[in-house]
Amino acid sequence: MGDPKSQRKKYVTPRHPWQKERLEAERVLMEEYGIKNKRELWKMNSLRKRFTHQVKSMIADESEQAQLEKQRLIDKLYRLGLIEAPSVDIDRVLNIQLKDILERRLQTLVYRKNLARSIDQARQFIVHGHIYLGNKKVTSPSHITTREEEAGLRFSPDSPFSQPDHPEISKETKPVATKGEEAA
């Protein structure tokens, strides 16, 4: 069984290493989402495949336990932001694409919320500890962010980027002063 401290691989590599179409599609995704290496891409794809496999095994089963598991899976996917509503049909889960999961990565959300000028800068902010989700510092760019965590996405209070006059902060993200703050 192995040492309990050693982690096992969380992804599946492609069956054929040199498929031109797949390599080109992976290259485009890596550039668009600022992914460091293919391993990160394969982890996200394996997560999508796990959800798909769960759904396929549950679709035919009509028992009470299967209905409970279906609802739990749908609730989890809704919390992760991968489906639109918690009342969708279980078959809609099969339509989840790799891009949907990549859009929920912390790195992508930091960039989409204009906390960084580029996707690569978003990765650097996260790795260097400048980004908080709620009250915790998250240093993993591949963290799948839930809907609740997304509301608390901000710069660390002790980060120089949290200062409104920092030159690296874009104008869209600078906090607007209220009337009471302007008088002070």
Low-pLDDT residue spans: 175-184
Shape: globular
What is the tally of beta strands? 3
User: What portion of residues belong to β-strands?
Assistant: under 5%
Into how many domains do the coordinates divide? 2
- Helix fraction, binned, reads 40-55%
Integer average pLDDT: 88
* Rg, nearest Å: 20 Å
Total helical segments:
8
Structural class: mainly alpha
What's the SSE pattern? Answer: HHHHHHEEHEH
Main sheet: strands, sense, barrel: 3 strands, antiparallel
Rounded to the nearest angstrom, the distance between the terminal CA atoms is 64 Å
- Trace the largest sheet across and list its strands: 2-1-3
Describe, in plain words, how this protein is organized in 3D.
The chain has 184 residues and is mainly α. The chain has two domains: 20-102, no CATH class; 105-183, Structural Genomics Hypothetical 15.5 Kd Protein In mrcA-pckA Intergenic Region, Chain A (Roll). 46% of the residues lie in helices and 4% in strands. A three-stranded antiparallel sheet has the order 2-1-3. A hairpin with a 2-residue loop joins strand 1 (131-133) and strand 2 (136-137). Helix 2 (38-59) runs antiparallel to helix 3 and helix 5 crosses helix 6 (119-127). The relative contact order is 0.10. The model is unreliable at 175-184 (pLDDT under 50).
